[in-house]
Amino acid sequence: MTSATDRTKLFHALHRSGPLALPNAWDVASALIVEAAGAKAVATTSAGVAWSLGAPDGDALDRDLAIELVARIAKAVRVPVTADIESGFGRDAKEVGETARAVAEAGASGVNIEDAYGAGLRDVREQQERLKAAREAAPDLYINARIDVYLRGIGEPQDRLQHTLDRAKAYLEAGASGIFVPGVTDLDTVEELAGKIDAPLNVLAGPGAPAVHELGTAGAARISVGTALASAAYATAKRAAEELLSKGTYDSTEEGLGYGELNALFKD
């Protein structure tokens, strides 16, 4: 699959052929590593991308910088790329549509668009307008609508499932392709969400969460890990720097990838 159209068709299909495991990348090198490890697609992490480009996570990153990185990754790998674009890098629906169009033109096959806003969530109707604008601007793009009810602990615990389902229905009506519910890995809840959402369900996993096959059996179509890989990489850099500066030794770098192995990833 080499053309952008083919990769986008493939990315849609991957959500229907068993759980899609996505180790999130944050730059070209990490994307190439993820691809070389056997990933069927490359997903970016918005936080990792922002950190690598000198900004905090949370709609602070310049849109052009984010899109330029998406283009670099899409050009470097052969598999589909889906970009986490936070809440759309736009103050209003029109700007979100412009972002979606630009990301598609950069070669991405999908996007994540979250409904988080400040300390809470956007109004459902406002979020629908933002999703509609993205769909109209990029008709073929896989739009993964993120719902942060569980992640942010919105409302009473007993109400969160229905709140999430109500938002999922509204977002699908607005043109979303799939639904992303971070903050949930409990298998019973995943099963209930997957059974009641009429679209592929994406969950966010990490240490202590059920394995990919367990989440898949519960109904999750897509399992991603968010900032986990970037955080682990930066933790290694922190340990190695502290060791060098405090002890004058280098043992923390012992398990690093070899220069030749990394350099070879770029030769194509």
From TrEMBL:
Pfam families: PEP_mutase (PF13714). The keyword tRNA processing does not apply. It comes from the Bacteria. Keywords: Lyase. The keyword Lyase applies. GO terms for molecular function: lyase activity. This is Isocitrate lyase/phosphoenolpyruvate mutase family protein.
